[in-house]
Amino acid sequence: MSANARRKLASPTLAMLPRVADSLSFLYAEAVRIVQDDTGVCAQVASRNGTDRVYLPTASLACILLGPGTSITQPAMATIARHGTSLVCVGAGGVRSYAGIVPSSLTTAWLEKQVRAWASDDLSLQVAVRMYEMRFGQSTAPPGATLAQLRGLEGQRIKALYRMMAIKYRLKRFTRNYDPDSWDDQDPVNKALSGANACMYGVVHAAVLALGCSPALGFIHSGTQMAFVYDVADLYKARVTIPMAFSLYSSQDPEREARRRLREEFRALKLMPQIVRDIQSLLDPDSSSGNDSGDRTTDLVHLWDPDAGALPAGVNYGYEFIDVPLE
Q1: Of 31, 187, 266, 272, which residue is most buried, by most CB within 10 angstroms?
Q2: 32, 218 in Cβ contact below 8 A?
Q3: Do residues 49 and 156 both lie within one domain?
Q4: Is pTM, for the whole model, over 0.90?
Q5: 221 labelled as ligand-binding?
């Protein structure tokens, strides 16, 4: 076999890469240097014996969360993007998501569905109703309910869940509090809940980006580049992050323990494929692609036409106007 043929076989292609629904959920990195070497992408950290290296399975990860003290080289970022893995910059312990990086080789099919639903008041409300019923069960949204009514009902249900969890774990009282400026003063449940939610945002952000959707075009949240991420992440808090956070009420390191347990929950509950299916169902419930698991391959670029629909690119359409006099 020639050297050129071996290089082609070794180079990852879109068809070889795993789909986002089949990926591991996330990897949190802090105080490391991520580089590309001859073997792959690795995280380096200085130790007494020199430099320790841990190689990252970039093609099998949906998302890498870059925490404080982390640096990354351009070749490593290029490899991660080529593998379809999203990079999300986060604060300490995974709290706060600042920015996300997405590969350019993604189809816009789901983005177009999202924009059409977002731009229509009627369709947007229908998406909000579907979100509510995904969280609390089919037919739980009152017929003809407004968005304000849905927000009120959601708030009542979450408060009731907090009370139920506090009673279960024999906590005298619980008040949801998220204040990054006084982070160390918060109780373990609030720390665990904030840390778990932040990691959830990172993973949902990765799923949204992997489908080619816009994180900014939300149907309930608005005014932030993470609006749609917050919308989708809310679907899983009552089932996953809230019960888990309350179970860590006596933990000495609730943030770290929350991240560890959340990874286990993603694997045990198969949440990554669920997130992909839920996003697709929200945006297009009647689509025949509802069972698609988020293929990262992309169609060829096409041209848009209001009458003819999608037209092939790379074609000279000048002949259509050959008889039109030019001034």
Answers
A1: 272
A2: no
A3: no
A4: no
A5: yes
Q: What is the arithmetic mean of pLDDT over 231-257?
A: 93
Question: Across the chain, what does the average pLDDT equal?
Answer: 80
Domain residues for the domain of 220 are 109-286
| Shared domain check, 117 and 75 | no
| Entry field: residues in the chain | 327
Give backbone dihedrals phi and psi of 108, rounded to 5 degrees, phi first. -100, 10
- Is-contact 195 28, C-beta < 8 A? no
Structure tokens belonging to residue 177: 């509090």
CA-wise closest residue to 28 among 102, 116, 87, 113: 87
The CATH number that applies at residue 198 is 1.20.120.920
Residues whose CB is less than 8 angstroms from the CB of residue 295 and which lie 6 or more positions away in sequence, other chains included: 19
The kind and range of the H/E element at 263 are helix 254-269
**Residue 205 assigned to a binding site:** no
Alpha helices in 89-226 (DSSP H): 109-119, 121-136, 147-168, 188-210
Residues 189-195, mean pLDDT to the nearest whole number: 91
pLDDT tens readout for residues 76-95: 998 988 887 878 787 765 55
DSSP, residue by residue, 17-35: SPPGGGSEEEEEE-S-EEE
CA 117/CA 214 separation, integer angstroms: 12
Strand boundaries in 166-297, DSSP class E: none
Q: Is the pLDDT of residue 327 over 60?
A: no
Q: Are residues 76 and 118 in the same domain?
A: no
Q: Give mean pLDDT, residues 21-50.
A: 83
> 28 — phi, psi (to 5°)?
-100, 125
Tokens read off for 68:
């404080």
- Rounded to an integer, what distance in angstroms lies between the CA atom of residue 95 and that of residue 29? 13
**Is residue 160 domain-shared with residue 261, that is, in the same domain?**
yes
- What letters, b where the CB count within 10 A reaches 16 and e where it falls short, cover 64-98? bbbbeebebeeebeebbbbbbbbbbbbeebbbebe
150 to 228, 248, 310: CA distances (angstroms): 17, 30, 37
Q: CA nearest 200: which of 177, 229, 224, 157?
A: 229
Cβ-proximal residues to 50 (8 Å cutoff; 6+ apart), any chain? none
Q: Is 234 annotated as a binding residue?
A: yes
Tokens matching residue 258: 């929350």
